[in-house]
């Protein structure tokens, strides 16, 4: 056995009985080899530490269950359920556009709204949903969308609340889709995934509002209710994730 091999198995050697020939040979060799002597000394110190403190406590059933759920979700192609979130994001855009009694259907309006919806769906499919970067990109995109279209105007309180409600409704579709996948253990997703999915869903709703909102060029209205709706949706996604976690594992919060 070479010195390198002895150092690799030093812990196993010192754990052998004192009269074992392999241990005796290692001890004899170590008397003339400082490197091997140091490896054996470190292995003995580690064994004494384990004997003193004992083996670590086994993880609780709740921890084992959460870990198993994550592993199963990853094996099933878990992580952020991007494809379904993207489909639900487009559905939210269509729903907002269809619910309104009046719609602006000129080519420029439809082109801008469609571009916004496609960007939101692409965000759901491609953004780093598990990081704050995804939420930040959704908020910045919403603000840029409003800034590019907005002019001077007055915020409409009643119309503003309607726009806010429509954006949150659009956000609820990808958010609910993600929640169902996580609840059924078909995907793994943390609070940031929920927050980002809700934000891009609201962004698609904002694109839909460009077809239906009478104040779609009023900058104060856009910033207060359209951009504000995306921010509120991101917060709602975070809260939904925490609520879902408590429902699935009450012992982790008790």
- Percent strand equals under 5%
- Structurally, the number of domains stands at 2
Overall pLDDT, averaged? 83
* Count of DSSP-assigned helices: 11
User: Helices and strands: which structural class?
Assistant: mainly alpha
- Kindly state the percentage of residues in helix: over 70%
What sequence of helices (H) and strands (E) makes up the elements?
HHHHHHHHHHH
By DSSP, the count of extended strands is: 0
- Overall, the morphology is elongated
Give the quaternary arrangement of the chains.
single chain
Biggest β-sheet description:
none
Radius of gyration: 29 Å
Poorly predicted parts: 74-80
Topology of this protein?
Elements: H1 3-8, H2 10-14, H3 21-30, H4 34-53, H5 61-75, H6 82-99, H7 107-126, H8 132-149, H9 157-183, H10 191-212, H11 219-248
Helix pairs in contact: 3-4, 6-7, 6-9, 6-10, 7-10, 8-10, 8-11, 9-10, 9-11, 10-11
Task: Outline the structure in words.
There is one protein chain. The protein has 254 residues and is mainly alpha-helical. It is 75% helix and 0% strand. Helix 6 packs antiparallel against helix 7. The two termini are 54 Å apart. About 3% of the residues have low confidence.
